[in-house]
Design goal:
2 helices; eight-stranded antiparallel barrel; single chain; Lipocalin; 2 domains; alpha+beta
Length: 196
């Protein structure tokens, strides 16, 4: 039984070796085969080296603001915080923010439009309604406008820049006491973020 098994194994190895040789001969040719012209299709070794070098070279990261962010607005340059919110930038150039500066009844959800500036810059124009919640029912008090220009970091995981905001009464007059400006920073929220 061992002799039959050994003979079968040796025959299989010989068959495999001769088949591999025949297969290699068929693909590469030997100069006399009708497939010898296929050698011309094999790129020279230099091409493999160039392709490997190109694959290993660092690639420019295309960063975008599209996504969800935790954003912090400082009073001036800080350290006091003026507002914090969750900000969503959409690929169509629109933006949505839910913040904590005022309660929901006073209008803590704002919308905006944004554009990319250069490789990593973002310019935002953001608006919302102001409400007088001391009245029953709440009464429209005017409009809130915030503009900012920021630059994303090289990896697209954070941004920083400057903001300016004003509020207007229902007649369109600026309310000087509600003017604010300062530094703005943000960190991207992903599905793997350990927290907000």
């Amino acid at each position: 039984m061992k002799t039959v098994l050994r003979s079968t194994l040796i025959a299989a190895v010989v068959l495999l070796a001769s088949t591999t040789s025949t297969y290699a001969h068929c693909i590469l040719g030997d100069g006399q085969s009708n497939r010898a012209h296929m050698k011309a299709l094999i790129p020279p070794k230099a091409a493999f080296g160039a392709a490997a070098a190109a694959a290993a070279a660092p690639k420019a990261v295309d960063v975008s603001a599209v996504g969800l962010w935790t954003v912090t607005f400082l009073a001036g340059d800080g350290p006091g915080v003026w507002d914090v919110g969750f900000e969503q930038f959409h690929a169509d150039g629109t933006e949505l923010t839910m913040d904590v500066a005022v309660p929901p009844a006073a209008g803590n959800v704002c919308v905006g439009v944004w554009e990319r500036i250069g490789a990593r810059g973002v310019r935002l124009h953001h608006v919302g309604w102001n409400w007088d919640i001391s009245a029953t029912p709440a009464a429209l008090a005017g409009v809130f406008v915030l503009d900012f220009t920021v630059e994303l970091d090289h990896g697209g995981q954070s941004f920083s820049g400057r903001y300016v905001t004003d509020s207007y009464d229902v007649d369109g007059n600026v309310i000087p006491a509600l003017h604010a400006e300062g530094a703005v920073t943000a960190t991207r929220i992903t599905v793997d973020s350990p927290r907000w």
